[in-house]
Fold Rho termination factor N-terminal domain-containing protein.
Amino acid sequence: MASRIKNEKQYEALRDQGMSKEKAARIANTPDSGKKGGQAAPYEKRSKQELYDQAKKIGIEGRSSMNKAELIYALRNH
């Protein structure tokens, strides 16, 4: 079976940093994996709707009842 990881090098680096297989794979499989260079806005500067949309995209349960701080916590710890 072929690997389903789009950016193997990034995946391995994230695993070496202690990330879970799921989180490392999710990051390494983003369309612009390894290209952003940290240019994304910090969670605190994003709207609650943007955080909600990101939480929905990665499947965080209970997101509809979360406030902004809870969404940030959930995204950082998923």
In short: Residues 52 and 71 are 7 Å apart (CA to CA). Residues 41-78 form one domain. The chain has two domains: 1-40, 41-78. The two ends are 27 Å apart (CA to CA).
